[in-house]
Amino acid sequence: MPPGGGAASSRTHVEAPWPGRPRAGERIVVVSADIGAGHDAAAAELASRLALDGVAVHHLNFFVSLPKPLHAVIREGYRTLLRWCPLSYDALFTLTGCSPPLVASIRAALRPARRRMLMLMPPDTGLVVTTFPFANQVLGPLRHTGRLSTPVVTYVTDFVIHPTWMATGVDTYCVIHETTQQQAAMRGAPDVRLVDPLVPARHRPSTDAARRAARAQFALPEEGRLALIVAGSWGAGDVARTAREVLAAGCVTPVVVCGRNANLRRRLAGFPGHVLGWVDDMPTLLQAVDLVVENAGGLTCQQALAAGLPTITYRPIPGHGRANARMLAGAGLTTYVRNPADLCQALTRAAAPEVPAFTCAADPAAVVSATLRWAIGQDGDQR
Hints:
This protein has helices at residues 38-52, 68-84, 86-98, 100-109, 113-120, 133-144, 178-186, 208-217, 239-249, 262-267, 282-288, 299-306, 320-330, 343-349, 364-382; strands at residues 27-32, 56-61, 125-130, 152-155, 172-175, 192-194, 226-229, 253-257, 274-276, 291-294, 311-314, 335-337. It is an alpha/beta fold and 383 residues long. β1 (27-32), α1 (38-52) and β2 form a beta-alpha-beta unit. The longest helix has 19 residues, at 364-382.
């Protein structure tokens, strides 16, 4: 374990303790998953930051380590549960959250991926970073048994630590909130670091001039309060109903982002608000609006909080969406609205948190680079 670890790590630990750059020939492998967009986006941002430090990065999609049919089965099965059987997904999330044997069964089901994952590692791999929980269930056991000799660091993309993130053998857990840090420590994580969210630096509070320019770029009205309604890249959840209820509140104009959900965009054809599909320039769109209405506590929620926008959670998706909603509201970061009767009041009073959502935490890339340097030093000592 590199120095500076432990569950009590402070938000004041920002810089890596080792000067210089990692040695040439050492590579970091980042394992994410193309299920939604958040896991891949976090991996891409991490890779971008590491590249600035001169670190070679290899990006792996976790699902390529599985037999091809399983990729579609897991991804589409998850999408289907969210859309058509939300109560079933909620029950599954809850059961796995309190049943270690169920998590162990997931780990056992993923056992065939271990050999393939090792084969996919470049020979000069010096460190592995994960942004997807199932990757931990494969890489943790490999690290624990010594079949994988490099450290494994995970960046937790949620505010809530579900047991599927936890695996013996994972060296370091990077989390983005003190409550998440406490959860990870209680679940037995050996080394927990508080880090800033892996969102681009362009996600920052807007100015009047930036807001005017952003609204012009997206053809949004110059005046009036705009509420951005987001539901991830899949447009998951009861988005159309949320849009209608936000519009009916009468105190804001809704701007709905449908992501890659073409059916949702067609359903909202003729909607009196503003309806967008996939948005490549989310930092600018966030500068155009006055508040955000979200339903999962995922990547866009983190972006909104980093941009200093008041954020409302409404009709959260089951499972991790509801768990994140409770945690975020309890921490004072968002407002959790549970019924339409309270929506208008919440939209009217929406204000940014009195304290910044993310303040003076470590850069995840600095933590990863420091761990790589430590691993190189350990390897040199052994030689």
